Amino acid sequence: MSDFRQLSDSMYASPQIGTADVAAAKEIGVALIVNNRPEGESDDQVPGPAIEAAARDAGIDYLAIPITHAGFSHPQVAALAAALEKADGPVLGYCRSGTRSTLLWALARASLGDDPAALADAAARAGYDVAPVRPAMDALAAQSR
Predict the structure, then answer these.
(1) The Beta-lactamase hydrolase-like protein phosphatase-like domain covers which part of the protein (predicted)?
(2) Which residues contact 131 (CB under 8 A, 6 or more apart)?
(3) What is the phi/psi pair of residue 58, to 5°?
(4) Which site among 14, 51, 59, 117 is 20 to 30 Å from 139 CA-CA?
């Protein structure tokens, strides 16, 4: 059962997905699936290559930007920002709970100049709290001006 949470018109976050969820993503127009889980993070996760194969079979692009519990790096933020800019439709990011995907999205959008307060509100409406990265969001948004 899919638990896609809409962060914006062009972004969804989700807890771990399975191959059946790829069809549900296709139904809502997702053009890119971004895997934010490192491989082998838990025994019950569906391997990234299985999700990638299902996505490609459905005509959906796939990108892995693994985020460990060590936090976020500038290259990870830049990679998602670039992917968001070139995606030909909505993006679905997933991790264990959807939190890392949401935080990375908020950082990437802030780096592109989006208002951190609006991003925080959007995340909260979807059930996520960006407080752990809010100072970084503010700094990235300031740098983008």
Answers:
(1) 3-110
(2) 120
(3) -90, 0
(4) 14
Cα gap 132→137, rounded to integer Å: 10
In DSSP notation, 35-73 reads E-SPTTSSTTSPPHHHHHHHHHHTT-EEEE----TT---
Highest CATH level, class, for 5-144: alpha beta
Q: Tokens 């208002």 sit at which residue?
A: 115
Residue 39: HSE in the Cβ half-sphere, 13 Å Cα cutoff: 7
Q: What is the mean pLDDT of each run of 10 residues along the chain (145 residues)?
A: 92 96 97 96 94 98 95 96 97 97 98 97 98 97 90
Q: How confident is the model over 34-50, as pLDDT tens digits? A: 999 999 999 989 999 99
| Whether pTM exceeds 0.90 | yes
The whole-number pLDDT of residue 109 equals 98
Q: State the DSSP string of 4-28.
A: -EEEETTEEEES---HHHHHHHHHT
Mean of the per-residue pLDDT values for the chain?
96
Nearest 5°: the CA angle 54, 76, 23 is: 20
